[in-house]
Fold these 4 entries.
Entry 1:
Amino acid sequence: MASGDRFAKLARMIDVRDVSRVYTRGADTVHALEHVSLHIDTGRFVALMGPSGSGKSTLLHLLAGLDRPDTGEVVVAGERLSALDEDALATWRSRHVGLVFQFYNLLPVLSAIENVELPLLLTDLKRRERRERAEIALRVVGLAGRAHHRPQQLSGGEQQRVAIARAIVTDPDLLVADEPTGDLDAKSAEEILGLLRELNRAFQKTIVMVTHDPRGVRFVDAVVRLDKGVLVNGAAA
Amino acid sequence: MPIPLAYNARSLLVRRWTSAFNAGGIALVVAATMLLASLVGGLKRMLVATGEPDNLVVMRKGATNDGSSQVPREAAQTIRVISGIARGPDGEPLASAELVNQPFMITRNGGRENVLVRGVEPAAFRVHRAVRLVEGRLFQPKLGEVVVGQGVVSRYAGMRVGGDVQFGRRRWKVVGVFSSGGTAFDSEIWADVRDVQDDTRREGYSGLRITVAPDADRDAVVRRIDGDPRWALEAKPEIAYYREQAETANALYGLVLTLALIMGTGAVFGALNTMYATVASRTAEIGTLRALGFGRGAILGSFLSESLLLAGAGFAAGAGLAGLAVFAINTLLSGIAFSMMTFSVATVRLHISAAGFAIGAALAAAIGTIGGIAPAWRAAHLRVVDALRRA
Amino acid sequence: MTWTGLVVRNLFRHPLRTLFTTLAIALAIFLVCAVLTLPAALQAIFDRAASNVRVSVHHKAGLVYWLPFAFVQKVRTLPGVTAVNHWTWFGGVYDEPKNMFPNFAVDPDNVGEMWPDYRIDAVALDRFRKVRNGAVVGDVTMRKFGWRVDQEVTLRGTIFPVDLTFRIVGVIPSTTGNAVILLFNRKYLEEAMEDHGGLKNVGMIWLRAERPSDVDGIMRGVDALFRNSEAEVAAETEKAFFASMFSSMQGFIRIILAVGFLSVAAVVLIAANTSAMGVRERTPEIAILKSLGFRRAPILGGLLAESLAQALVGGLLGAGGAIAMSAALRAAGTSAYAQVLGPLGSFRMSPMVAGEGIAIALTVGLVAGLVPAWNGARLNVVEALRRLF
């Protein structure tokens, strides 16, 4: 399924309708999100920003299908996520979402290319095809020469690039990144943000990125701000 | 300056499950070893207790036990009146001529084994001073009456006062139960020697037990008996006799040590895993402690102590478990049946002796030390800067 | 890269830890195989030694009670009996009292027919019939005392007041079930006992049936024949006879089994600890895998596979070690060390015990790994992500 066809069909990639989420942390009850509504169009590079505890990570988790809202509805790529049970959600994620985290992205026992192959184990692709796809993904992020290195042998920036390669190897509709530059030095951070920008431009990937980094604003199409679980600025991006 | 033990104790408690599992593994290894050792301890205790200090066992020369010895009637009569033998208040010599027999008995579980029947004269109850009637009465002569040891009561059916049992060629009537304070006699049936002679179609005896008079020269009595040219007999102190029987128990200690070695090594591996992991996860703490000024020796000592603390907890739990098992087996099964040198079966009450306790403690200490020293060494030799950087 | 590859790589993440756990399991399984062999070995000893066409006839009251020798002639008349022989325990010692070993007076004429499984060669059997003081000796005893065929040895009587000198005419090979005994001609003992009241008794009588199906009939025949005699007689198959001899060892065997069980439990705790450690350390990775879309089942499977792989290798090592030890003991048992080892020399570990050992190892792996693997797989991704980031 080529991304282009889907993009032609769906103008709106993400539709969040009146979503609330409460969770308990030990003895505290945290109202992470309060009646948040938001939509994001296909092909947009959006940053979710806000102070610590504002609910941005929680919102990101909901978009990625990692969590369910207590009230409201989340529709991504035309799929009503609340209609899927846990197993179906897992399968949906593997096909439609690419994930990049701040750290612990890669399995230390696997080489770079094996890490990139990981999501492809959930598909029906044969070994050779998986390998080929992973190689392409690594080439896109500029790390083809480091394919057989273990994460311990890569710099922070290189590790994040491998993570991004893994995120795109399944050709997902949506790329989700949670503080991707949070653990990197200034130069590497710029490289990563630039890479994401490239992916967005070249392949029309919809990217939602949670970030603290004010530098990120330069690279994105729109910024959605949250504070104390509530949207501060507009509901459309 | 050493690091306070409270730090280690609290670290162990924080990693609750890991500590519990590790200590649990050590506990089970200690329990298994102490359980096996309790069999040896019980066997030894039973045999050692059976010998009276001033008694002699007289048997045919070369016999290893009174189950396979023969002493002719005339020989017994001659020996009875040797000088040096103690006399009872009535002037009768404390010399007990006995005939040992091993007939079949069917156990309560349906098994068939040899039980030790000792044909005795009234003198036996004065020579074997530990034997005391606890129920019923003594048998009357030539009536087919028997008194049974406490160990016999639980092992075979019908062994109660008034009960009627079959062994040998006839039925016998149980008229009393005796206790010998946990010695080998508790697993025996005592009958009138003449009844046993009739039953086995034998004349004579298998051996004599005599009490040496307090002021007599024991060695002289032994020499007298050994040197008599008419019969080929020998006398030895009862304590020495039973000590020789206990030699088989020593072979079992070999088994105990083998078990301790094998399972102890397994437990050491478990302890190593735990301690290495704990050192790895507390790298930051170690760095801090070193930075604060605690030396290598203090760190080494601290982690070694932690390993020993775990092993100590394991030992306590394991010893408790073994003690419980011993109590349960002794109470519910009255002990473990064991084939003795006399080709008969005795019920051995398990007993955790000082040796058994020491083996368990030594095992736990060894596991704690060997399992802790290498990780403690690693902890002590971490480079401070590396440790802090990883924090 | 495949799932199996991932499992293997995870095991080698901490090679020392995996090695230690595997060795601990190996040691426990080694012990378990040794423990399980005990009842099996006892069973094998009398399965091998006890035939199902031989019937033992002895005094009901016990083996120390004699039967009149005249009974031997009586049982020859029973239908279905192809051979009759007898054992009378002589109880002789060689040189020192502690050198007691089983020695019996028998009928030399049909030893080969009665006990073909002793595999005494025909020449020896022939000499045994002809030489009045001839003796056939088990190989283990021969080695123990350093005897040779044609040597003369003297045994001192402990039950009978006579010493007897024998000429060794043959050997019972050590591969049979009975390589310790010494057999000699009853007539030789009878002659020696003439000055001491003669010998009119026999210890126990052996009958050989034509077919196993004849055995029941023979036993009933024996009961009927001696119902009203002076001695009460019991007939039982050889198997039953040996089985009852070992029944008194039950208690001891139970303790050994308990010890084995405790060892397995100990190693379950050790292995569980290792599994739990591994899962705890890899919580972030598990969170990543789940976020990528991997479901609980494959994650559980992968974690469990690690635990099972360790256990399997440990089990193979342990069972293999036990087999090696049993082979070594067997080799030593037929050598000069036979005396030192005693019963251990015929220690025979069967493939079935090895199989049981490996099965137990896999159970250990399953039980030890299950709870940590389950917890790992059930990890709530968002909570894990919240805790981590």
Entry 2:
Amino acid sequence: MTDMRSAWRTLDSDLLRSIALICGSVAMVGVSYGASAVAAGFPLWLPVLTGALVLAGSSEFLFVGITAAGGNPFAAVAAGLLVNARHVPYGLALPEVIEPGWRRLLGTHLMNDETVVLALSQPDLVRKRAAYRLCGLGILIAWPLGAFLGSLGGTQVRDTGAFGLDATFPAVILALILPALRERVTREAALVGAAIALVASVYLPAGLPELLALSGLLIRFVRA
Amino acid sequence: MTGNRVLLVSAMLTLAAGTFVFRLVGPLLRSRVEFPPLARRLLESAAVVLLTALVATTALTQGHDFAGYARPAGVAVGGLLAWRKAPILVVVIAAAATTALLRLAP
């Protein structure tokens, strides 16, 4: 576990393909992110730098969207932070995938929906860590790189809808989360939580519905 | 835009710092506090519950509205294939292709 080569040996080829695919989709969404940021009047470096430093796509879309529409930048920060609050329960659930020592800071930065779901899908700690790190580093490159290419490309590639790209993120997460949903107690909590989130999304700002979904965990106590 | 650039960059850096703190809280807390077994199980389920909710909201909604039928249909096709143990590449291509084709239809 000391270098990238051992990570390659640890991970089977199906998982490596998953990681490559995730990074590819992230890069393509990054292209549309960079293109829409530049089209909204932001300088080229902004989506690239934001991509590398924030490294959380949906909060960045929101941040750029709100400031581009003339909103207060710190209102945009609040909206982005609300979306990113889910990293707290992610870290509480999987503290062991962050390696100790000097890697800790980088490992912390690499936490996102994709790395967390990949780590969850792995059977043991060695593979959890390797999947998390490799996918995280891939996204750290793919997301700002996509944003950079998108800012160069200008306005032609803004519409990801035409290629069905918007369906790939939920599809990948769903595919990776399915094994965990085999356990009945977790599945019931997840389904109740998803229903709560869907209803809440009609009324509440982005990020909050997913956090409210956590109340689905209480179903365990209702039945017990 | 130039006049606001300092404000914009400080806002972006605040978002980056705040997000990093959120990422840091969980592992830091777990390394300092010993949680009872039930709490640990709940925390592990919490990630699955969050991700499932994220699938539901990103598949079905766009802002506060319904995303239209094409996207959830694509995600459903992908989910079905994943359930039948199809490789992830097939899942993703089928999901994107279903959504894209449904959007072509009038």
Entry 3:
Amino acid sequence: MDDQSDEKSSSSHGGVTRRGFLTSVGAGAVVAATVGGASAQKPAEEVMKPEEMGKITLLVNGRKHRLLVEPRWSLLFVLREKLGLTGSKVGCERGECGACTVLVDDVPQYACMLLAVEVEGRSITTVEGLMKGEELGPVQQAFMEHDAFQCGYCTPGQVMAIEGLLRKNPKPSDDDIRRGVSGNLCRCGAYLHIFKAAHRAAELKRGKGGAS
Amino acid sequence: MKDQDESLYYVGDFPVPETPEPGQEPKPWKQTRVIGKPMPRVDAYDRVSGSAVYPSDVTFSDVLYGVVLGSPHANARVRSVDVSAALKMPGVHAAVTRSTKGADLTWPYVWGKGKAKLFDAHCRYEGDAVAGICAETPYQACDAARAIKVDYEVLPFVSDERKALDPKAPAVDGPDKRIAETDKYERGDVDMGFAEADVVLETDYRTECEIHTPMELHGCVAKWDGDHLTLWESTQGVFYIQQQVADVLGMPQSKVRVVGRYMGGGFGSKLEAGKHTIIAALLAKMTGRPVKILLSREETFLITGNRPASNMKLKAGVRKDGTLTALQFTLLATGGAYESGGISLTDWLIRDLYTCPNVKCESTEVLINAGLARPFRAPGHPQGSWALEQMLDALAEKIGMDPVELRLKNVPTVSQARPGNPPYTSTGLKECLEQGAKAFGWTDVRKKTAEQGKDSPIRSGVGMGACLWFVGGGGPPSTIVLKLFPDGSVNLNMGASDLGTGTKTIMAMVVSEELGIKPDKIQIENADTGATQFATRSGGSKTVPTESPAVRAAAIDVKRQLFQIAAEELKVPASELALRNGEIIPNADQSKKVKLNKLEALKKRGLIIGIGYRGPNPEKKWVNPFGAQFCEVKVDTRTGEVQVVRFVAAQESGRVMNRLTYDNQVIGGITMGIGLAMTEVRVLDHNETGKVVSKNWHDYKLPTALDVPREIVSIPIDPDDTEANSTGAKGLGEPVTIPTAAAIGNAVYDAIGIRVTNTPIGPVQLSRLLAERKAGR
């Protein structure tokens, strides 16, 4: 298994970080490895065959989960079907809609575009992780107050996109918010209420207007 | 208009024995305490916390994942299917094809007349099912599906409905059945009407094909317990799915349970079961394990319905004083590879929205080798509106009249297109036009855009459009069961689905209004054929006007029984009692009030069960919602980019039930209308393959957070309709998307003087039109 510091240095958010995985999946990996640059030059320390299950530990919502996974399993599949965290939704499985948005080290990312093996050692937060026991977190509270959804299916993704935005930028402008959720489709078209909820969530997080 | 249009939403004239006689319904509320206020949803916690279980979220420790293998060809005959290699792959449990025992099933294309097979030897459109296979993981199931060997005889195809009538075009369904019968409507004499007109215009319009793409994929989980099948299906109507599945599988309906308490959007595409539903049930039966099938996003672009492309010609005559003298409309469109009824109602606004004595409509449906149409949020209406509302705009300009004024001249009081010209219970169209224009600042802003300098490459424009929605009044049957516990809390049992429109919340508000209890004391069970009362499908914007009067009736039934008990114990006549916050209060002496849990008889009974039925609609009158929308755009004449700056929507949908969810419907409908106007096109490869080439959200663009206006103002017009039903509510979800696209088209014309008759108005088309104008073409 890669050591932690090496993995961090070779990764950027959204990039592929598990060299062990890269060397295992044939032609596609060669392309990716070439693009990957420096890290691909180093010898692989672990090779996972496509059909073999590998042991990984995922840190999700502050809890460690030891799992047996195939190298091709997406983070989304593992969260939903193996850990039962079905808050993150499946909408397209190709990085178009954002219904599966989770935070990886505080940054919103599409869980359908990440492999479970490549986020080992990173801190993953799903919509369930924003709850304080049975109580809603501030972004969730704001979505409820402003009716920032209709069918609710894109909502966990929208909530995580706003959560990620506010962790980086506690006082976002209208344009910051629009860009912040521009990777999250809402077919019901509740965007205008989502923008209102985002402002309200920023307020709640700053400790105004009730518990946060 | 075909009978099936209304039967989609209503039982029609078929008598429903439970329906109360006319006149038994309570009068609508005069004043309300709860109804009409903005209230967050009763199920908001579940939806924002991630705890709501959508059908996609249902899983079991022994669940298998299924994949439907679809034909990759626009038109092909399946010679043979070989699953032997696929079955040997890791994790694979079972496969089903047309030669599997018990899988040679008839598949009814629901709206259409054609009967086909679940696995039809002739796959008339891309994605039609050839086989199903299931495995321990979806990855293994996908691998296995790819390993199924199918021998196809690839056939010639027709993918462009405009060429389907060409004698050389291949026939989709035999030489005689390529065209369904042309639907004709006529009143008055259009030739005479055009002769009487001062101005006659004729224009061709086209709207492109749209795909519903709700966020939750079409799919289900199927699980057998002996001979009893349970399906968790993402659907707009659990009882309809139950009926379809029982019918296809030849099972008693009582042994099929369909659960769909939450669902992630439908917009009309989830009114019926899919082949995936049956395939999941078959695979589950074969393996003895639950099977989950979610279609892939790409498959939903192929086989789960669409709003068909509409080729329209509209000829209109008007006198200088604004009197419409004649409207003549012809439509050529396609419902796909079977006669699906998908093009109906495209002419409804031409027939019925404005006063006009002479109207002629002809709608021709042709078949092409592509997926079937399904009802899509106000079927037909946004397309017809695209033609009619832009035509009205052009007529107004020709006679030098304000477009709002022209519409005000032609507001109808009766439904002209229905036999006997029945009056509407209310037509808020005049108020929608007047109050919408006022809130928008129509006259002033229009003056400003007319006077703007020619120097800036950025041009502003304003436009508007009006609408009605041909149903939206709801109707029987509906049964509601309400259980009142001695502590004053309530269970509400309702079969209807909540698609995200806020139905459940509105029903809780109705109970709260009638029984004086807080909405948070109400628990709602819904959309489960095994545990709730029968309800018709949630479509046609009928759910709130259908269910809310039944909920009110159930609450009144509870109150009646409760007052009977209380009257005996308090020795006060039932007619002199009131109910508030879990207390019975005698009107005469409020100090004698008692808590419900002090009533001996109630404690002994344990609960009171109230039953409510939906009363009949008013006789010989029609209940339709109306609306008018106004918008402002900015057009960059260098690039053809259009920015929607703001919208005002004045909608008349009867009583406002929940102001918060009401406004949400308005902004959602407008956002979807922006998609029709500006971004959404299903593209078929007409040249080589006939296949869909825009089958994902990158190539088929939905409006995103960056595409919506910063401001959408909702102006509810409440006509105080005392006749529609006992809550006064009418449908909202569909009318709000009808005039949006046309209003944008009119605003773009106002900005740059180019009439865009073909959707979508995006930089690709507009930059070409601007360049052509510059070149003097």
Entry 4:
Amino acid sequence: MNLFKYASPQTFYPLAGKLILWFAIGAAILILVGLYIGLLVAPTDFQQGDSYRIIYIHVPAAWFSMFLYVVMAGYAIMGLTFNAKLAYMMAKSIAPTGAMFTFVALITGAFWGKPTWGAWWVWDARLTSELILLFLYIGYMSLQAAIDDTRRSDRASAILAIVGVINVPIIYFSVKWWNTLHQGSSINTSGSSMAAIMLQAMLIVAIGFWLYSTAVILTRVRREIEERARNTAWVNETKE
Amino acid sequence: MNNRQKISALSMMFRILKRDITVAWRRRSDVMSVFFFFIIAASLFPLGLGVDLKLLHSIAPSVLWVAALLSCMLSLPRMFETDHVDGTLEQLIISNQPILLVAMMKMLAHWVLSGLPLVLIAPLIGLQFNLNMEELQMLALSLLLGTPTLSLIGGIGAALTLGLRGGGVLIALLVLPLYIPVLVFGSGAVNAVTMGMSASGGVALLGAVLALALIFAPLTASYALKISVE
């Protein structure tokens, strides 16, 4: 079997169309099951009460905000090295979902922080890095949107994504250093070890988020393919 | 015109630098406006905060560093823009000269024109914020090590947004998040002196970031230039 068969938009398009439904169904089931266990079955935290339950959304969202950025940069590298159009389209389609998860992580973090820390926002190293990650996503999407020529916008934003991914660890450590210099970290985010059922619920939601991201990204890639290849014969034939 | 003589890379680098500085010097107001922006931006803080010298003293490192960051960023669109508009950049790229060296010299010229003046004037502004001699020295040293990194990283942003409408605002979006480590290490080093701690960690990290940027930024910017001009 030719591994690169689905690297061409023409063969990828129908395959993605078939897969989206399964990913979407899987995502819906897993997220509902995970949230059911997390919100109704898992025990109440003896320190934080029920307010801790937002972690079932917060933590997976934070994981995916970072994971998707790395995946996006991976596709950017693939695009630049193999000059693969589909890889650029994937990178472009990942960005909005990644930015959304970053935003969700920040908002849910604020909702959790208010009752727990007594403040909507603290300049903790992790929070600050997450905020900067959102800026990086916004920069990527702005650059992509500002260039009309798709070939240039693909390649220019790919470079930006790669520069960003190299900078993420440097930014994280700089913020950490800045944080320890300015104030002793009064808040310990790691907390005590977690009950097994809580971890399981969180992992189920995380896998659900993964399937959700895949479904949404594939949908977006399909729209991108339709737009870019709108003048080719095969797209006009497969019109739905 | 067959008498084109092959010039060495070193002489070409020197010529580009000399040309950029000459051109900028003939339009002095462009260079001076960035310089005065820095002074005005830094002077706004005492006006907004009041004349509490103790407070001003404690925020001075951050204020001066943020002002330096913004003034460096303001002049970024000019790094390649005029050469792009009149076709010089295209000629440099299709001439047989390594574009990497061209990008490097453009960044160096940018630093000489908008980074170095800040290093020289910052201690004077620092006096307005009641900084003492030791702090002023650290401020100058941290800016001396940090502003070249700003020009280097900024060069990538300038190359990526070359010729785009609204390029100036876009550069800010792309470049400011990447400037954060320099801001943290730079103002952190001065803050450390203010608090009576050793600033060597911050200075070493500024140097490390500069070394990294020196290796990767010209390479990335030259690649970005090729994409933008093509």
